[in-house]
């Protein structure tokens, strides 16, 4: 694999991490909670697409739409049932345990319904792509679409946050939930909307992930979800542009590590980056230092 091919592959993988990381960073930025079950929403979305497109024989596009809708509803239900009761009274450890419980629940439900065997996932992007430099560089269609979707998602989120009333409510709630409530903002509804958007993005990321790496199992979303969390921390968790930058940087580093160092060590390098960031710049590349008033 040439350096240019590895770079394009890294941008593609990083774009997937970025879309997943956007879900992490939005939920944390507004609710100040980490939804570690987020990676399993990716898996749920992929199984919905697989069921609609492969089992039922319907259009993959219909499968993607169904995955986005159902994952959005799942995110809202998860926030309402699992996280909302813990938001004010519980410790971060209780929230973490709850997230792990939700994750295991989704994975075991997938095991019961679909079994442990990996399924062959049919790509939702049939386009073969383009060849450049006289055929020396071939860029697959899924790679081009993945990068384009990540850019569109970033721009759409930025416009939504800064140009709509719901987005302004999210900004207010992220600064001070108490003051936002006094201003007439329904904080619970705002946080539910945040979970809905993040979960819908997880379904989109799942469609792109399994189209690029066409194997589906109940644990498909676990490792990408963890790596996307690393990307969110690297970019500055709570920052939407930071999540995008962190995802792209992490994807490029992972592919280059697999290509030029060792495929066995690539994951260790990724998590080593998390340790370095936490040690030397815990706020991430675009994160802000928040001073607590006593």
Describe the structure.
- The chain has 294 residues and is mainly alpha-helical.
- The protein contains eleven helices and four strands.
- The chain has helices spanning 3-31, 38-55, 60-83, 92-114, 141-163, 165-175, 177-182, 187-212, 222-235, 240-260, 266-280; strands at 119-120, 130-132, 137-139, 215-216.
- The chain has a two-stranded antiparallel ribbon with strand order 1-4. Strands 2-3 form a two-stranded antiparallel ribbon.
- The termini are far apart.
User: In DSSP terms, counting alpha (H) and pi (I) runs of 4 or more, how many helices?
Assistant: 11
Give the neighbour order of strands across the main sheet.
Answer: 1-4
- Report the helical percentage: over 70%
Low-pLDDT stretches: none
- What gross morphology would you assign? globular
What oligomeric assembly is this protein in? single chain
Q: What is the strand content? A: under 5%
Number of β-strand runs: 4
Task: For the record, give the distance between the C-alpha atoms at the N and C termini, rounded to a whole number.
Answer: 55 Å
Tell me the series of helices and strands, N- to C-terminal.
HHHHEEEHHHHEHHH
Instruction: Evaluate the radius of gyration.
Output: 19 Å
Largest sheet: 2 strands, antiparallel
Q: Provide the residue-averaged pLDDT.
A: 89
Structural class designation:
mainly alpha
């Amino acid at each position: 694999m040439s350096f240019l091919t590895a770079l394009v592959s890294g941008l593609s993988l990083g774009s997937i991490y970025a879309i997943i990381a956007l879900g992490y960073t939005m939920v944390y930025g507004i609710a100040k909670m980490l939804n570690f079950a987020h990676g399993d929403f990716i898996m749920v979305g992929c199984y919905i697409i697989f069921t609609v497109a492969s089992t039922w024989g319907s259009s993959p596009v219909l499968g993607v739409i169904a995955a986005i809708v159902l994952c959005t509803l799942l995110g809202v239900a998860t926030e309402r049932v699992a996280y909302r009761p813990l938001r004010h009274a519980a410790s971060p450890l209780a929230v973490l345990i709850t997230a792990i419980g939700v994750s295991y629940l989704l994975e075991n439900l997938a095991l019961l319904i679909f079994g442990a065997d990996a399924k062959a996932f049919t790509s939702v992007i049939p386009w073969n792509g383009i060849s450049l430099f006289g055929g020396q560089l071939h860029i697959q269609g899924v790679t081009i679409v993945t990068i384009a979707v990540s850019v569109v998602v970033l721009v759409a989120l930025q416009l939504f946050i800064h140009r709509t009333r719901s987005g302004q409510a999210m900004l207010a709630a992220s600064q001070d939930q108490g003051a936002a409530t006094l201003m007439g903002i329904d904080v619970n509804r705002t946080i539910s909307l945040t979970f809905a958007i993040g979960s819908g993005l997880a379904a989109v990321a799942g469609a792109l992930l399994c189209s690029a790496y066409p194997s589906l199992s109940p644990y498909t979303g676990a490792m990408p979800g963890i790596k996307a969390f690393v990307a969110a921390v690297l970019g500055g968790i709570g920052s939407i542009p930071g999540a995008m930058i962190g995802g792209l940087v992490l994807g490029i580093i992972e592919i280059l590590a697999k290509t030029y160092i060792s495929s066995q060590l690539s994951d260790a390098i990724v998590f080593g980056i998390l340790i370095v960031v936490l040690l030397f710049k815990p706020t991430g590349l675009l994160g802000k230092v928040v001073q607590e008033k006593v």
